[in-house]
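User: For documentation purposes, I need each entry recorded in a consistent format: the amino acid sequence on its own, followed directly by the corresponding structure tokens. There are two entries in this batch. Please keep commentary to a minimum and don't merge the entries.

Assistant: Recorded as requested. Entry 1:
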Amino acid sequence: MRKSVALYLMIGFVLSASAHASSNREDDVHRMEDSAQIFDEIMGTPDSAIPRDLLGSAKCIAIIPAEKKLAFVVGGNYGKGLVTCRAPKSWSAPVFLTVSGGSVGFQIGGSSTDFILVFRGRRGLQKLLSDKFRIGGDVSAAAGPVGRSASAGTDIELHAEILTYSRSRGAFAGISLSGAVVQPDDTGNEALYGHPVHLESILDGKVGIPAEANELVQAVSKATGSPVPDSAPAAAEPIAP
């Protein structure tokens, strides 16, 4: 019994540490490259992609590549990704974030899943910028519709503040992420931008898009019918001491 309890605690510790571990610039570059590839692949199959008319009104899009999930009676999951928002002139430079959650049940095994969150408004992001939020609790969420048009979605889906999707083993579909906690990855943001910055300044388009994020922002811009932004870097606004 004691060994079982110790095992559960160890799993929880590993998952928690992984979700909040510091990263370096190389990790961030890989995350951006993976996110761009995932988004391109999903949108490259119109009949099973996020509807274009829905993306046309999206305020922010978050991509969490290959979330790792580990389960052994007591399960947990974590993922590291990024979010870009619609700014006055184009889509913004990315802000890094983590998604974590847990589950209890009789389950053994592991999986690797890509997630996409489509923000219908900025309220969820305001909560994220201040601290964190829980999907389905602090912010309403629903499994998003797929296909060429959002008309197939229910009223509940289309009135949710966040629409959530997953891709596992090639299959892409709307999925419920209720209970998952989303929060900023401060160490990732510092690693990319070089010093602490105001996350809201980044998502408002006041910080230049790093060259490494070009492919990602271009992919999102193309899918949403938005202008491709100027990639020339600008000075990030540092956080006042």
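Entry 2:
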Amino acid sequence: MSEIIECLIIGSGPAGYTAAIYAARANLKPVMITGLEQGGQLMNTTDVENYPGYPNGILGPEMMEDFRKQAERMGTEIRFGYVNKVDFSGAVHKVWMDETKELQAKTVIISTGATAKWLGIPSETRLNGSGVSACAVCDGFFYKGKPVAIVGAGDTACEEAIYLSKLCTEVHMIVRGDKMRASKVMQDRVTKTKNIKVYWNTLTDEVLGDKAVTGARLVNNKTSDKTEIKIDGFFVAIGHQPNSGPFKEFIDTDEQGYIITQPNSSRTNVAGVFACGDVQDKIYRQAVTAAGSGCMAALDSERYLSALGH
């Protein structure tokens, strides 16, 4: 018979580790399954300067190592592996780790995060963290007074372009079609911002630079004309993919795949299953908000178990 875990946490980003810290302090004996991307998106981030408590900033991987050490010190058992299947149909929730090992849990906290969508060009991968970023709010500050480019045509891309325009000398906005998907109000804000230059019907041929971004080569997808621009930062804002796949049979998600939680809580549609962090947050997507929602999930889990008399 499989062991029955009080609180099983799936995912090891800021949300998962914070949930683990709170659950461990509540004596829930949490077990964490790290996932394949241990530490989450912050493992691909260099300087983190907007998380409270680090006055001099910190490297993303170092920050996540601090989170891990604190979770373990509080009593979290960390298991390295990934979840490929679940069964939330019964009172005790079943989770399969590494395809074969079955775990049973009274409560489950899903904190599997989201993965940024990329263009898929080699130079983008090579310079990721050295001028290439998928989060303007996270990294825009580093390009204050410098020219940057952003790829995207939705509301998020427009919002981030406007954010960057307040910090950077010039924002080159690269749109692959002849119109944006963004709402009209966001498009109007972009067109009225003097230091945003929109490139219509344009693709990124290559991000330029050896050790850091120095420019980008753009290609018009109608005329095939190529243009090189000088930039110090290259932002990709074409969306995120929430890592909710294994749970969709039982857990309600929106049309994009983000897990739906009840207002002012981390509760899902399944009793005893909670969600936190970027797998359920498509609005803020920050480490600090993910950590806050991890705290909520652990408290909700503790209250759920208390109500059952555990």
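Summary note for entry 2:
The CA atoms of residues 51 and 288 lie 6 Å apart.
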